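4.2 Preliminary Data

To establish feasibility before requesting continued support, the project team ran the inverse folding procedure on a target of 203 residues. The structure was first converted into the token representation described in Section 3, and no sequence information of any kind was made available to the design step. The complete token record follows.
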């Protein structure tokens, strides 16, 4: 088995153990058992339990990648397609189950709160911010904090459906149906107002 396959199997097991047992009881022994890997293998790939769960949360929820063209020709369509690609990953039922578990555990576990805080502070280098940086350069805007606008757009689109799913346990099929029309509308509003707030035409 390739190392990347072992890594994904371990992360899948860590997600399952977290949801079934909670963070405090999610020992490396239990993760090893669920992954059918030895505890030694786990420690060869992850320095500690916190490192393992940091990697789990980072790879499944924060460092999500989707392809996009740096040579922007149709901003509204390309940004909508990028958000749809991200939404299809982040809003999957297994990812939503992980988010629910993290919300629950963050109230009890300082480790989980620290993981989420460290990732949030380091979450500026992501595919959505990268696309917006390309767009800002293309339009000649001067924007001090592109990541802030990326966070706003995420909240208008994926974050909105995520909140509805968490609050109402919305079916995956409903989310899939709502993604495109909502994202297209949000992107039109966002791009129309993007150059009006803190962004000003550059010289």
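Position-by-position output of the design step:
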């Amino acid at each position: 088995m390739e190392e990347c396959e072992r890594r994904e199997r371990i992360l899948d097991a860590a997600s399952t153990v977290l949801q079934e047992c909670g963070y405090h009881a999610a020992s490396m022994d239990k993760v090893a058992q669920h992954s059918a890997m030895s505890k030694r293998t786990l420690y060869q790939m992850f320095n500690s339990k916190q490192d393992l769960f940091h990697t789990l949360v980072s790879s499944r929820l924060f460092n999500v990648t989707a392809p996009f063209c740096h040579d922007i020709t149709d901003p509204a369509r390309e940004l909508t397609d990028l958000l749809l690609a991200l939404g299809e990953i982040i809003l999957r039922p297994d990812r939503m189950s992980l988010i629910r578990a993290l919300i629950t555990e963050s109230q009890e576990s300082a480790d989980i709160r620290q993981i989420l805080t460290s990732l949030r502070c380091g979450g500026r280098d992501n595919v959505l911010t990268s696309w917006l940086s390309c767009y800002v350069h293309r339009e000649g805007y001067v924007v001090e904090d592109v990541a802030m606008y990326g966070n706003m757009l995420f909240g208008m689109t994926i974050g909105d459906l995520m909140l509805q799913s968490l609050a109402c346990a919305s079916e995956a099929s409903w989310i899939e149906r709502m993604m495109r029309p909502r994202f297209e509308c949000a992107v039109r509003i966002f791009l129309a107002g993007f150059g009006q707030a803190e962004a000003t035409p550059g010289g």
